[in-house]
Amino acid sequence: MNGPLLKVENLTKHYPLGTGFLKKTIPVIRAVEDVSFSVEAGETLCIVGESGCGKSTVARLLMRLVEPTGGRVLIDGTDIAGLKKHALHAWRRRMQMVFQDPYSSLNPRLTAGQIITEPVENFERLSRKQRNALAADLLQKVGMSPEMMHRLPSELSGGQRQRLGIARALALQPSLIIADEAVSALDVSVQAQILNLLLDLQQQLGIAFVFISHDLSVVEHIGHRVAVMYLGRIVELAQCEALFAKPVHPYTEALIAAAPVPDPTRARLEAPVEGEVPSPINPPSGCAFHPRCPLAVERCRMEVPPLVPMADGRVVACHVRAPATDVPAQPAEAGDHSPDQVAQPHDPVQRYRKTQV
Ligand SMILES: Nc1ncnc2c1ncn2[C@@H]1O[C@H](COP(=O)(O)OP(=O)(O)O)[C@@H](O)[C@H]1O
Ligand code: SF4
Ligand SMILES: [Mg+2]
């Protein structure tokens, strides 16, 4: 296969506020604005940002649970918007989602075995024997005992329920899993177990992840690359290590400063992000971060900064830190990268494991 597994081009989602009856212009919530990135097979792209910045809307757009206002989502080069029923069905097998709250996304009346084999039974009929064998195999893949297949979700712990959610996502052998705040509701020690599980599954099965979290400390250990979102837009997209070692966008810098520092030898940056996230109904002009940015200049209030490629391959949208006048002739697109940039520059499994207590 040539090209990325997933390519997102200028994805935009506006939610209209009301019907606009007798009004010329309807106000909209600008949930996602002009977002572009790509994900290679077997890669983990993390999306981070404060609550309300559009992360879950991106996930829903990728899964085609909502229709975009603009832009495209391509899987293996095919635009999913153009897929008819049969092709859409086939494509849905390749992309699965794991949610934040496994309890509300698991049918409380079904046993664990029924829950994880249900996606397969939507496509093909299974005998009782096949169903039990599949359930046992999937439970083992996520580190649970096959006997658990007879339990109801209410009889499982939070961590076990999340493993069950992952087993269900694995049932159709997807190429890509979208995990939206998949560990956010769990205790730190259980979070670590689930993250290790995801890393193991990636190594064994070559699954790509779009891993969405508001928690930078989680992202640091699991991502190959990280996209930082602010008020619907990507403001920086970089290799994980590079982003944490040297954030360029002032918002990324502030987020990292605000996150707990797992490594005491690493210096803390300046003060955390101050002020509230502005409303996506009426976002600030120019760079939406300007009311909170210590580096803001006049131009920041006037012009939306474009994503500009930097020497190390990252892209940054900031008039001061990445001025567009210094841009080489190549157009910037978050997610365009040379193959060697995504070819596992570090082993996230090793990185994660070594920070375990
Ligand atoms: N179905 C919807 N209708 C109207 N507004 C929505 C809808 N879903 C999300 N939004 C708004 O879009 C913005 C982004 O939301 P969301 O994608 O859930 O952010 P995040 O996941 O980063 O917290 C928020 O302002 C949210 O209120
Ligand atoms: S463009 Fe201006 S306001 Fe926006 S992050 Fe850069 S310096 Fe701050
Ligand atoms: Mg969300």
Structure, described:
GO terms for molecular function: ATP binding; ATP hydrolysis activity. It is found in: Cell inner membrane. InterPro entries: AAA+_ATPase, ABC_transp_ATP-bind, ABC_transporter-like_ATP-bd, ABC_transporter-like_CS, Oligopep_ABC_C, P-loop_NTPase. Its main location: membrane. This is Dipeptide transporter ATP-binding component of ABC superfamily. With 357 residues, the chain is of the alpha/beta class. The protein folds into two domains: 239 residues, P-loop containing nucleotide triphosphate hydrolases (Rossmann fold); 79 residues, no CATH class. Helix content is 32%, strand content 19%. The chain has 13 helices and twelve strands. The chain has an eight-stranded mixed sheet, with helices on both faces. A four-stranded antiparallel sheet has the order 2-1-4-5, with helices on one face. A hairpin with a 2-residue loop joins strand 4 and strand 5. Helix 4 packs across helix 5. It is globular. The two termini are 40 Å apart. Bound molecules: adenosine-5'-diphosphate, iron/sulfur cluster and magnesium ion.
Under CATH, the topology of the largest domain is which?
A: Rossmann fold
Number of helical elements: 13
Order of strands across the widest beta sheet?
Answer: 6-7-8-3-9-10-12-11
Domain unit count: 2
Characterize the largest beta sheet: strand count, sense, and whether it forms a barrel. Answer: 8 strands, mixed
Give the distinct bound molecules.
adenosine-5'-diphosphate, iron/sulfur cluster, magnesium ion
N- to C-terminal distance: 40 Å
What is the name of the CATH architecture of the largest domain?
3-Layer(aba) Sandwich
Report Rg: 21 Å
Mean pLDDT: 86
What's the total count of β strands? 12
Principal-axis shape equals globular
Query: Which percent band covers the strand fraction?
Result: 15-25%
Question: By helix and strand content, what is the structural category?
Answer: alpha/beta
Write out the CATH superfamily name of the largest domain: P-loop containing nucleotide triphosphate hydrolases
